[in-house]
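Example protein as discussed:

>
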Amino acid sequence: MPLYKLLVSISILILVQLTADAWAQGESEPVRPVYKIQPGDVMQISVWNEKELQKEVLVAPDGEISFPLVGELNVIGKSVAELRQQITEKLTRYISEPIVTVTVSQVLGNKIYVIGQVNKPGQFVVNPMVDVMQALSMAGGATAFASLNNIVILRRSGSRQNAIRFKYSDAASGKNLDLNIVLQSGDVVVVP
């Protein structure tokens, strides 16, 4: 077995053990983040008992959707509950007590990117709770030439881009698990 595959396997075992230890010590369940709608997501929106108001919508690159009687809405960064509430409020002008259902049928907008010295570089559609170690695993692990202690996560915030350093050996050994951050949509993990 190549060294990098062995390191990834050991890292996963360590993370599983640390998680099991935390649960065994009676720590409370971690707070789950609320999914925020992203461009590229496909939404299923329906109003109970209104056949004309059942529609699948694609979130456009600018974050807009269009729905009958509601018009254009910017949904980027909103939760499903927030969007449901907004549509319900707008429909009350036309329908008495509308019952609105909103679901994300395809999570295509929540993408991260892993590039550099990994076995399968590329973009990955992810659910909200993916951290750096998991992203490296999704990319097939690092190559033998990777500089694992110099990994950088590039994160865009508006027009600014920040670089977050990630030292693989610290996270893998459990020394500094705070480095193993949860990735956000659009993050780029660079493995030099």
